[in-house]
Write a structure and sequence with these properties.
This protein is an alpha/beta fold. The chain has helices at 17-28, 40-54, 68-82, 105-133, 156-176, 197-200, 203-212, 225-232; strands at 8-12, 32-37, 58-62, 87-90, 136-141, 181-188, 243-246. InterPro entries: NAD(P)-bd_dom_sf, SDR_fam.
Length: 253
Amino acid sequence: MFRFDNRVVAITGASSGLGAQMADAFAQQGASLVLMARRVEKCEALAKILKEKYNAESLCIKCDVTSTESVNAAAKSAEEKFGNVDILINNAGASKNGGCLDMTDEDWDFTIDVDLKSVFLVTRAFGNIMKKNNYGRIINIASIYGLVGNKILEAPTYHASKGGVINFTRAVAAELAKYNITCNAICPGFFTTELTESFMETELFDNYCKASVPMLRWGKEGEINPGAIFLASEEASYVTGIALPIDGGYTAV
């Protein structure tokens, strides 16, 4: 179960963090990879490691997920290389935080474009490849902050974008089911990445985590991977439209 031999997995934001971790997990299970990011040199370094570890084949593409032209070109390159794309993971994201009363239009638009509009652009481009093959698995990386508010960080645009990703996931799941394409979201809790480590690795956040997360800690490297492997698998063929929290119980209380 849960093997991906002869499957092609495309991942945005694959240069570091959760994207790189999921790439490693899928390569270990036999997948070929399309690694997309603005920092393509980091994808190429990752591809070399995955080739050495698992003999995984990778295509690395420099891609700006907020640009229709860049996304469509990436999809075309992936299809030309592999003939199809079976699994898409919309992982790329960034955020300019600030309170609702003080946030600028520019910061709002930046976050919505990177975290929400990009999911639409990439899903449209790669979903049309999946439609032709009558098979697909789409996984959108949302956030627990798409499900709830929070009291420690002012980030209304991030909450709005990730909430939008979750309901976009439901809409796409309903729309594309007739093409044998599933669409699900993963809602990570607190995981250290390049964007979060400076804030999370503080005494303030450690105390907050212990007070708010039933498991008394943030997520460890690799703990997102099993959820992605499951939702992308052939075995999850009847699972679509869900938002799966992987959060140590944060949204359970």
